[in-house]
Structure formats: C-alpha cells, structure tokens
Amino acid sequence: MNEVALQLVTVALDNGESGIFIGGPLVTTDNIVPEQHVATIRFSDIQQIPGDVTLEQALMLFAEHVVRNRTRLQ
User: Fold this and answer.
1) What Cα–Cα distance (Å) separates residue 8 from each residue in 3, 23, 27, 72?
2) Which of 1, 30, 36, 66 has the fewest CB atoms lying closer than 10 Å?
3) d(CA 3, CA 14)
4) Structure letter (DSSP) for residue 14
5) For each of the chain's 74 residues, which pLDDT tens digit applies?
6) Are 65 and 47 in contact (CB under 8 A)?
7) How many CB atoms lie within 10 A of CB 55?
8) CA-based R_g, the chain, Å
9) DSSP-derived secondary structure letter, 46
10) Distance from CA of residue 71 to its chain's centroid?
C-alpha cells in the first residue's frame, strides 16, 4: 500500500467555532525553527466532491486546485 503524508490543521475562531483542514505536511519536526510564523492563510470557496471519493482521488482534486490557484495568482 502506498502511504501519503498528511497533516491536520485546526483553526479556532474567537466565537468558539473551529474547523479541521487536511493537507500535505507544512510543519514537521525536521523544519521547525523559532522564527517561523504563518504569513498568510487563504480559504477557497467551498468545493463539493462526491461522498464516495477515495483519499487518493481527493488528493488529486486538491492538487489540481492548488495548481490552478498558483497559476491565477502569478
């Protein structure tokens, strides 16, 4: 079985609501430095995906989304 590295990011709002986001690892024990801070957080529009999508299919959809946004932001 192929393994995929994922990391959960929990965002808590002042009003008590929170959300959990899944993505490729951003911060690992190998790259933590004291001066490292989050510079920007961007939220996409809500994306509808099939409920029976596999993790591999979801990761491919997310990767395509990232590529489209990088191209649009340049």
Assistant:
1) 16, 7, 10, 26
2) 1
3) 35
4) T
5) 788 788 888 999 999 999 998 887 887 778 777 777 778 887 878 888 889 998 888 888 888 877 877 765 54
6) yes
7) 10
8) 15
9) P
10) 18
Q: Under DSSP, is residue 35 helix (H, G, I), strand (E, B) or coil? A: coil
* 48, 34 Cβ separation under 8 angstroms: no
pLDDT of residue 73: 53
**Three-class SS state of 29:** coil
- Dihedral pair phi/psi, residue 68, rounded to 5°: -60, -40
61 token code pair: 């959809």
Instruction: Give CA–CA dist 64/58, Å, rounded.
Output: 10
